[in-house]
Amino acid sequence: xxxxxxxxxxxxxxxxxxxxxxxxxxxxxxxxxxxxxxxxxxxxxxxxxxxxxxxxxxxxxxxxxxxxxxxxxxxxxxxxxxxxxxxxxxxxxxxxxxxxxxxxxxxxxxxxxxxxxxxxxxxxxxxxxxxxxxxxxxxxxxxxxxxxxxxxx
Length: 153
Ligand SMILES: Cc1cc2nc3c(=O)[nH]c(=O)nc-3n(C[C@H](O)[C@H](O)[C@H](O)COP(=O)(O)O)c2cc1C
Description:
3-stranded antiparallel β-sheet, Pnp Oxidase, Chain A, binds flavin mononucleotide, 7-stranded antiparallel β-sheet, 3 helices, mainly beta, 12 strands
């Protein structure tokens, strides 16, 4: 394991699934790099690996929904990180106001328009302009910590 990866295992992160509609089909990928970036204008950010097969599809959509996962959704995080999997298979979702897939049971969602893209080493820093968002006040989050998906008590 690289020294940086070894250190970053100890830094807890939220777990979100970034979704979009690509040619009418839902696509999505799990990210642990989601964070807020700017209040005015309202921007959020995450990092997409340059080798990601899903990111180019989301980029083409030009908009995406960040689905922040709740404690009872570790299997959703795993499914949306798996290669060659039917990530949406049997999963309930509705269209967000901007038309991106909004997964059932999430802790929070943010409906975004692609705002900026910057190369950062082997990743792309993605900034999304937030058009709408909502959060469930009584739900616990899913966190990624020391290589494990866990509920935050
Ligand atoms: C907890 C967790 C966090 C992840 N965080 C990121 C991330 O921030 N950025 C990223 O590009 N991939 C991240 N991944 C990997 C992607 O979910 C996915 O496996 C990878 O993009 C390969 O799929 P793709 O080619 O369809 O994109 C994460 C996976 C897990 C399980």
